[in-house]
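Aim 2 progress update. The chain analyzed this quarter is reproduced below.
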Amino acid sequence: MAKDNLLGLDKEARFKVGEDVPFVSERQYNLTIGGITAYGLIINAITCFYFPGIHDKNAYIGIVIAYFISALAGTFILRSTSNPIVSFLGYNLIAVPMGFMLAIIVKFYAPAIVFNAIGTTACVVVIMVCLSMLYPQIFLRMGRALFVALLATLVVGIVMMFVSPFNTTIYDFLVAGIFSLYIAYDWAKSNQYPNTLNNAIWSAADIYLDIVNLFLRILRLLGRRR
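Predicted structure tokens:
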């Protein structure tokens, strides 16, 4: 499940803020990013807990199609509005259906592995955010390289679907590393934008997708160890 960098491709537009758009303090801005990100992850956790597994192939395909349609709609909304209420709607169109996708995936793993993956992901997120706050310029310089690396892994992932000899463990480690760095990059980048609620929600969507993709890779790695 690749990072939907349709959000990221238009990041420079976030520097353009209308004169009538209110600003918030740096603390409120960062708390909003953290809160909105956490909200999406909590919604996903609740969905995974209560949503039953899907065994019907047609139902699974329907959920996947519905997710991509909803995610594209949410991305379009985020990119086309400066109203934080509308942006939050766009964020929900990305995060809420993601919960159903995750619910289907985690059913294939033992609960102990899932909780281990959650804990490992949380530790990595905290470490990368702290490093980003301490050394923002280092991570800001990584933007272009990370995007190229992400595209390369997407191409390799497609090739791996048809060619079996690839070592998927190494691949998953590389992808996990890329998204770990993306968390630090997106946090540092978010603090370069004007401190508006709309930018906070937009940045939260970036970081949310980074965390979800990191979790999925860690889950695969831990599941493979069993």
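Residues 197-225 form the longest helix (29 residues). The chain has a mean pLDDT of 88. These observations will guide the mutagenesis experiments scheduled for the next reporting period.
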